[in-house]
Amino acid sequence: QVHVVESGGGLVQAGGSLRLSCAASGRSTYAMGWFRQAPGKEREFVAAISRSGGSTNYKDSAKGRFTISRDNALNTVYLQMNNLKPEDTAVYYCAARRGIGALTSEYAYDYWGQGTQVTVSS
Questions:
Q1: Residue 93 φ/ψ, nearest 5 degrees
Q2: What does the alpha-carbon distance between residue 104 and residue 112 come to, in Å, rounded to a whole number?
Q3: Radius of gyration over alpha carbons of the chain, in Å?
Q4: Distances from the Cα of 87 to the Cαs of 3, 18, 43, 61, 84, in angstroms?
Q5: pLDDT at position 106, please?
Q6: Are 8 and 115 in contact (CB under 8 A)?
Q7: What is the average pLDDT score of the chain?
Q8: Residue 99: which pLDDT band, with cuts at 50, 70 and 90?
Q9: Which of 59, 69, 72, 122 is least enclosed, having the fewest CB within 10 Å?
């Protein structure tokens, strides 16, 4: 069983920054994605990175503000979030998939973390 653990959430003012981290257990390297779920809303895609790190995908509203990156030596993926807005408030989930591509559908992912809360105050 692969364990996925997120960290780095918290409370920040609008315009501020946070960096989320996600570590996947085991020796294998996975393509990884970040998703989020706000209260009363469905979970949505935020960003993804391929297994090699050579390909990334972003939700349109995240482009230019969020950056996904990875350190394969540490089996860790990061989501740097800048210029945060109140509408970014959500529980952020990290997910891993056995494939290689940076896919946007949550159904493509095999392992999920428990989530980390991000709250952006106005």
A1: -115, 140
A2: 14
A3: 13
A4: 29, 14, 14, 10, 8
A5: 96
A6: no
A7: 96
A8: confident
A9: 122
The three-class DSSP label of residue 107 is helix
pLDDT exceeds cutoff 90 at 27: no
Q: If you ran DSSP here, which 8-state letter would residue 14 be given?
A: T
Q: What is the predicted pLDDT for the residue at 75? A: 87
- 97-101 own/partner pairs: CB under 8 Å, 24+ apart: 97/30, 97/31, 97/32, 97/33, 98/28, 98/30, 99/31, 99/51, 100/31, 100/50, 100/51, 100/52, 101/31, 101/50, 101/51, 101/55
What does the DSSP assignment read for 36-97?
Answer: EE-TTS--EEEEEE-SSSS-EEE-GGGTTTEEEEEETTTTEEEEEE-S--GGG-EEEEEEEE
How is 22-36 classified by DSSP, letter by letter? Answer: EEE-SS---EEEEEE
Place of tokens 């209260």: 39
